Amino acid sequence: MHRFNHVLITLFAASCLAIACQPKTETEPPPDTTMPAADDSSQEPMPTETPTEAEEATEPEATPTPEAPKELAAADKTFVEDAAAGGMFEVQLGQFVVGKAKKQAIKDFAQKMVDEHGKANEELKGLAATKNVQLPTEMKQEHKDIMAKMEKLTGSKLEKEYAKVMVDDHTKDVQAFKDYSQSGTDPEVKDWAGKMVPILEEHLAHAQALKAGKTYKPKSDAQASAHSHDTATAKSATNTPGS
Fold first, then answer.
1. Residue 100: which region, alpha, beta or left (left: phi > 0; alpha: psi -120 to 50)?
2. pLDDT(95) > 50
3. Domains of the chain listed by start with CATH number
């Protein structure tokens, strides 16, 4: 009996030991489905939206390159240069005579040359700029010689010589401008020359009357209109304070 109890105790102890040696099974927690917090420092910047066509800045239109002015033919260029030199002579000689002459008729005509040839010179200067023509900056030698001769004269000798010079000079001018207005090749220069012909003809008729010692009487309506305007301009200049 005692032996039987010892066997039971031994079996019980062995059974307990076996249970104690078995691994414990733990209940694993459910997987964490929470997304990890985003690391702001590692995120790439969101791409910026491209502007729509309406929002795009409009680029300024390219300014077209101006075309270089066309060169004048040799004959056209010579005419322009000669006309500029002649106009310069008319103005400078007229200014000299206005200050030296005694007769009012001579002084008035000289002032007329200053005003009308001065205006024509400005027109020609603007036209020459569009044709890439460099106008002369001083008179021709023949004009300088006339000026030098005139500067030595006074009184009636000065007035008579001035009238003679104006007749000779305008006789040449009228013919030169008529010829070019008919045979020139540049349309714009031809138009300007044609416009100047009646003005130069009126100057010539006026100078011829002065040379003959007569009172100038316009022969045509165009000359009468031009002369009336010139007389009013001369009187206005004479009556201007400080002139």
1. alpha
2. yes
3. 74-234 (1.20.1260.10)
